[in-house]
Hints:
The protein has helices at 2-24, 33-37, 52-62, 67-74, 83-91, 94-120, 129-138, 141-154, 159-168, 174-182, 184-187, 196-199, 204-215, 225-231, 239-250, 255-268, 270-273, 276-284, 292-300, 308-319, 324-336, 339-352, 360-366, 372-395. The protein is an all-alpha fold. Among the domains are: 188-274, Alpha Horseshoe (Leucine-rich Repeat Variant), CATH 1.25.10; 290-396, Leucine-rich Repeat Variant (Alpha Horseshoe).
Amino acid sequence: MKRLRFVLIVLLVIGFAALVAFVLSPHHDPRLERLIGWHTRFGNLREAAIEREVVEAELASYGTELIPALRQELNSGSLWRTKFVSFVEAKSPTFFAESIAKKRFYSERRRELAALCLGRLGLSASIALPDMKRLAVTGGGNLGLTAEVALAMIAKQDPVVQRTALSALTSTSQPRRHFFMSRADEIWPGRVDLLIPGLNDHDESVRAAAVQSLGRADSSGSNAIPLLVSMLADPSPIVRPRAALALGMMAPDYAETAVASMMDQTRTNMTWTGDCAYVLYQTVGPGAKAALPALESDLSNTNMLVFHGDAAAALWRITGKMSPAIAGGLNTGLRLGVQRTQIRCLRIVKEIGPPAAGTIPELRRMTNHPLILIRRLASEGLESVEHTQTNHLNAL
């Protein structure tokens, strides 16, 4: 009898918790869903703002009008962090406890992305500084670190904030070093000197983050070239492909060295190489001729569909010649590729011009894309292909 009574009480508590959760569920600004809801609630990842430049384009279009909604998100989901809900979670059946844990995770992830968006708005989000300072202290985990990064992005003229952020790059905490090194080129644009110590870090994830940030610095990081060459033999499989990519992006004279190293990585370390190889081959163009057989093989392999767009783009950059296979690969990249692949393919199509006429249907479809950057790149590509075609016909 006592056991039955206990079960009934637990069920009543769970039912009450579910009712409270339903009533108190936050009402999210629909404009934010592509920016911070894609990881948690947004159903179509192809319409989500994931890549940094896509997020920045969306934020720029709204200006400061999203700041109140983003600040509200920083404080949302408090229900899932209460002792009462923790008690219910501990006493609930597994399926219900897992549902509560998932809700809490999603809520925290939204708060992290909201903080990062505010940081990317820079000085215009100064009104959110008290929120960031509070979360940097109380948030804990990734949320606290994200708040610290956002604080450094907004308060660029605050010497105390900047000093604290800079100290994170040499912190004794590996998660802290990695987190700040991953965002270093965004917090301190052009400060390549801040990335160099990370190349010698004893932790592979920090070295990988430093190399990746350095690659985005292009030729401004030329002082690091000797170190990058040595990192082609780094003991970590995470670091080696990123070092080859950074070397090729920063030092055209080392293109053949970078390509040879990357080709070796695709044979022995494909798990961690991913699309680094394609980006390198697209970057160095004719300097990647040695990779032509591998690229042609990838483009004809139906098991590599997700990479077809990048393989086709690399083939164009290397040979400068259009073919039905390359056109088909670009179309596949535009249609099926992940967001960064779509962006690269759109820029390649604009570069190719009239010979890329086979991509016109996909380009027209993408001019109606919900994301601003994708729409703009698709329109520019379509104009490059069609406008130049028209001029050529008129000349005839």
